[in-house]
Amino acid sequence: MTEPLENIISANADLVSGDEHREYNTLNLGPTHPATHGVFQNVMHMDGELVVDTVQTIGYIHRAFEKLAERRPFYQITPLTDRMNYCSAPLNNLGWHMTVEKLLGINIPKRVDYLRVIIMELARIGDHNICNSVIGVDSGALTGFVYMFQQREKIYEIYEEICGSRLTTNLGRTGGLERNFSDKAWGKLRVFLKEYPKVLKEFEKLLVRNRIFMDRTIRVGPISAERALAYGFTGPNLRAAGVDYDVRVMNPYSSYEDFDFIIPLGTNGDTYDRFMVRQEEMWQSLSIIQQAINKLEKMDDKETYHADVPDFFLPPKEQVYNNMEALIYHFKVVMGETDVPVGEVYHCVEGANGELGFYLVSDGGRTPFRLHFRRPCFIYYQALPEMVRGSMLSDAVLTMSSMNVIAGELDA
Asked: Nearest-CA neighbor of 53 among 95, 88, 13, 87?
């Protein structure tokens, strides 16, 4: 429920004092509005074009992911995670698989870790690509978005070669990946690594030192490091405020400790800093992917793509069609016929927009007893009123874009 307007006015008396006859407007930004980038609502109390205050309303696409997951076998939960942050679905998928692997105590081969790192960093680039190009659109620059959109398509083509899907990938399996990278996937990946840096430089030339873009983003929607930590910020939004917290470094997973990369930081926590942090993170992701490829090329093993866990990993199709034991295992995995250990685990990954965590409680059955997703959007979206209060309406739209609020994750 939204807060009554009289309460909003009294809470912001300092903004309206001295003029009892001033008129105010109530503006509904959303729930179905292009500027909100999703189905959620901001009820804004406006003094002309100035935002006096705003109250968020979410839940328009709430799909009860956690309760749905508690009624499904572990194998069937992966497609649910796709629908959270659909701009970087593989990060959701692999984060979930790592949580289950932590519960089961599965040791993942080093080669699988490196393959997963490549996929996750591609997803990070794809997500930042969308977020930063949309910031450009909301500041009045469409060209960069159209230019970058082509590159996002190439990332989706790599996904397609790896798993057969593009947007909602259902990528990976408990214990590893569904299949090895094909020669065509490696070829597309190498082409992308060759072409994307040129495009990224061109994109930066369009915006980074553009006076109009700088005026529209510098000192817009700022938040201090102290306030960001108080709200529970993570990811680029926190690093833009100057806090060097990155799950990949602080709590390494998937062999991230084997890679050298920089954690970019901002200083003011404003829209420009959030944009610049994501720009630099794309460069770092490109470096990590290249490092992973170099490490894989030095390995003698070129075939391993999953751990030896037949109770939780689907056997190859050709065996299922020709071998009774393989068919039985296929059925048991899909239908969740294998009990898992009793336990309670939390695992998090560095999602494209913050710490993406999975809190899993198992009672030893074939479905989770309790499951909670830590969605970064849900945590930092609560800070929007503080970040836009006193700004122009157009600045509020930019601030929302730079926070990278994804409605599917927000409402999960």
From this structure: 13
